[in-house]
Amino acid sequence: MTTLQTTRPPVAPATATSTPLLQLRGLSKTFGTTKALDGVDLTVAPGEVHALLGENGSGKSTLIKVLNGFHAPDPGAELTIGGRSVPLPVPPGRFREHGLAFVHQDLALVPELSVLENLRVAHIAGSRRPWINWGAERRRARTAFGRLGLDVDIDQPVQRLGATERALLAIVRAAEEIRDARERATAEHCLLVLDEPTVFLPEEGTALLFRLVRDLVADGRTSVLFVSHDLDEVLAHTDRVTVLSDGRLRGTADTAAVTVPQLIEMIVGRPVQSPVPTEHAGHTPERPVHAGVTDLHGGVLAGLSFTVGAGEVVGLTGLAGSGYEDVLPALYGARPGASGTLRLPDAALDLATSTPAAALAHGVVFVPADRARDGAAGELTVLENMTLPVLAEFRGRAGLDRRRLLARGRQLTETHDVRPRDPRAVYGSLSGGNAQKALLAKWLQTGPRLVLLHEPTQGVDIGARTHIHDQLASAARGGAAIVVASSDYEQLATLCDRVLVLARGRVVEQLAGPALTRERIADRVLGSVTLHEATGSSPEVTA
Amino acid sequence: MTTTAGNDTASDGTAGNDTAGNDTTSSVTTSEGTRTVAPVGPAAPGRRWHRPSAYVERYALVAVWLVVVVAFGLARPETYATTGNLQNILGSQAVLLILALGLLIPLTTGGFDLSVTSTLSLSAMLVAVLNVQHGWSLPACIAAAVAASVVVGLVNGACVVLLGIDSFIVTLGTSTFVLGLVQWLSDSTAVTGVDPALTEWTVVNRLFGVSLSFYYGLLAAVATWFLLTRMPLGRRLLFVGRGASVARLSGLAVDRIRWGSFVTSAVVAGLAGVVYAGSLGGADPSSGSSFLLPAFAAAYLGATAITPGRFNAVGTFVAVYFLVSGVVGLQMLGVDNFVQQLFYGGALVVAVALSQLVRRRTSGAG
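The joint structure predicted for all components is written out below.
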């Protein structure tokens, strides 16, 4: 169902002139006592596609959020676009006037509305006219697609478009915003920020998208800042690359002149020794198999199999879109459309029909990443949230035995160090760390045999993090099998006996023993696509 | 937005998460605070439960009710402050009380049931028509009325759960439909002459001078109280209402619970209809609708008392009798009938506003 097609050949990038299109100097941003950004400089030449790389927490997101006016930077930073000075902080909601346009990972499209409505929504919403001139809007939309050589039915709802087409639409919309800004003469030069819009795209989709991007920057007054984790995409499609690490500028290089290992070293901050000893996934040498996953499908997951031993902590990681985040909900029976088998000592769950209740009945528990939505009801008390799975134990002659419930709550807040030590406090009033400890208490009290945790220390302070690690280690000593899906490599290295790196729905690497370090995980994750392709189709890395 | 979006906010987030800007923020930003506070020593337990203001909140409605009773008693000592009037007030509100208690079940799970009054009319009308025009025995009539109510509840639940339609609009539709059925069934006229036994067992027979129907309401209140506070099922209803995703991931059969809640409210409305038929000695096709607003007013007003922020049986009981004490008092002062509407309508808006305020304050946004 290809409704969007490029018919024009890609245009060669315009040559960089001496005046930079975007110049950012001395950008710092402090949160409390943490410096998220520390004196970062960034220069983007006109007509350039510039990559911004860095690990999670390196400051990439903060930088983008300074550009779109969400964060106010520390005083002293300077920003110019096309030689014009842009006020900092960027006035919220007015970045367009200064020549900035953004396409975020979620694309910000309304699926129920038509292509036309999505394309023109900003213009229509911002219009001061009391009515909408649909005729003019349609002409304008057709011109916009035509200019870029795209043939599209502008009346179909966006939900009928494929992933690639949606991404293209979001970029065309950003291009239109840029054009609007030029027409209103508020900005001559423009920077389009692509904040990981390609994560969920197949390779052909990314290629198509970058042909569009090349068309856009061909005018020499537009540049693109491409934020990504995918080194292959960066090498294939960008002109220069800037790497951030721990909030500092690690370096800027011509893409043609760098290699994947060099980039990884810049991102991780330390050289990574190679070769790394690797084993094939699915085999645990020294422990009896406690839980076995076979042929897991669903979303990007393409026949994943692995085992977890009793008392073992296995980590799952990968780039966004690699499928590592989809594994746990699928195992827990909470992901529609999954298939595969989860073998436990006394049962085998068919994941196509399994439910959370079935998983729980077999001693499988799941601690989700989004605490506020999936973990606990914030309006109810800590006690109510913690005891929800064990209410049946507290049936008395006169209904729920509230005294025993409260005693259990007190005991759990004590052993899991939940502060305040008042089980009747409202759950939503807890800090991130205590909220997570309470959730862990909720599930560990059931004596689970397989514990699934998704980003277990996200938004959790250091003290609570250590505590949570201890609790998990003690559960593992008690014989439970533990699987942690996380993008926090430091945590994985500390917590896990073994880490599986996923790419495109498959396990591409397994790290254990001395090979299990933060750097090695980062190396394997960031290079995962390359590795995968090296074993599969021919690598398509061009400079 | 999927889980992947969390990647970047994850670690960037530890450094001050104004990124989310919504409900997740509260817990994350406060983690900032604890990082410095936590190691200092055992944190003082937040005993917000025992604040004096919490007691005020819990019993304010009871106090206001007493004030209303005393005030009218002083104003009309010879009519209002009499045992007879008290017995009257207690006995007259059983139908409303039972109806409002039934409403609490879907409300707790986050659903609306606007069809309860139509179900009540249907049930009352079935009892009357089957008994009077077809000569069915009372137990058979009651069984048929309850069965019809179950059907209404099943349809409501199916539309909400299977089709994913907003319960508000579903029950508005079924309510109108059922009311149409009632008019068809009754030829749009009142049916009288129901077996006197029904009237005897609802309003005529008295215990301590109060009609039996009051005790049915009391029984319903105790049962609802037990369900909502003392049974695991009550907790599950609460979790379905306050966090459907949490409930689902905790292994609860969310869909079945929501469906069941609509069947429950319909059955309870059907039983209220039987009592209504008894107290009228028959049924009329339209008067049941007048219970809708008072029932919601009582449920919401009740949620501001006893366990503020939650729909609860005791609060609803108090609210029903607070509302009727006010209305009866106003009538005795000789105020026009429209004041009753003002009182109920005003109470609903005030109650919803209050419960929203309470909920916002106790939901721990800070």
